[in-house]
Write a sequence for this structure.
């Protein structure tokens, strides 16, 4: 039977038969209120080699201590950002606490062309634009803190932000939380390792979705011919 399959597809090694099924790339969105842990979760997902690449955003804000240009963000001037915007070089963009952020179109297209999955660490504004501009193959996850007091504690212990920005972040928490219903999955980030495990489970399940598997219909058609070929 396998030899006949091999003849049909001009395959020498029957094992290659299974390579006829491919998968469209998955685009994973992580969003959360400030301090809920989406960036920390994103870094752990990348470090744990879940075979996913991250979309590195451009931003007009200054680097925080320890941040690296091209690794954490591409730090650019407001003029450069406006030029990218005018050229339609950004898939999404938003103004957050007085600074602009955006997702470079070419970088994302390059990752998708290579067949890799991609992770977006963006807020709800960016997520809405991505849904409008891309639509299919997006998987959205909203990360919640375990409690309001824990969220406030996390924000207070962050050393990167000024008191003014910290106050703004805390004031915006309620608005950020109001968008949770627009997301497919919800993670309560009480334990970061558990959260990373749960999101990795989401990734695994989404990769196996029927509608994402290219060539599956033909694969099943061939399998259904077993009676004729045996």
């Amino acid at each position: 039977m396998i030899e006949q399959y091999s003849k049909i597809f001009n395959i020498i090694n029957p094992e290659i038969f299974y390579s006829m099924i491919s998968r469209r790339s998955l685009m994973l969105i992580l969003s959360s209120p400030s301090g809920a842990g989406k960036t920390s979760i994103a870094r752990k997902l990348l470090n744990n080699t879940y075979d996913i690449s991250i979309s590195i955003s451009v931003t007009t804000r200054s680097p925080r201590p320890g941040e690296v240009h091209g690794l954490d963000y591409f730090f650019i001037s407001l003029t450069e950002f406006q030029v990218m915007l005018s050229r339609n070089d950004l898939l999404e963009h938003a103004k957050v606490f007085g600074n602009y952020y955006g997702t470079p179109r070419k970088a994302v297209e390059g990752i998708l062309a290579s067949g890799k999955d991609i992770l977006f660490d963006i807020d709800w504004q960016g997520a809405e634009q991505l849904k409008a501009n891309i639509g299919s193959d997006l998987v959205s996850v909203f990360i919640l803190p375990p409690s309001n007091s824990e969220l406030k504690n996390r924000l207070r212990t962050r050393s990167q932000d000024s008191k003014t920005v910290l106050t703004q972040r805390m004031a915006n928490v309620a608005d950020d939380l109001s968008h949770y219903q627009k997301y497919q999955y919800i993670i309560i980030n009480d334990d970061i390792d558990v959260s990373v495990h749960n999101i990795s489970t989401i990734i695994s399940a989404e990769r196996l979705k029927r509608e994402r598997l290219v060539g599956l219909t033909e694969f099943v058609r061939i399998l259904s011919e077993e009676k004729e070929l045996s």
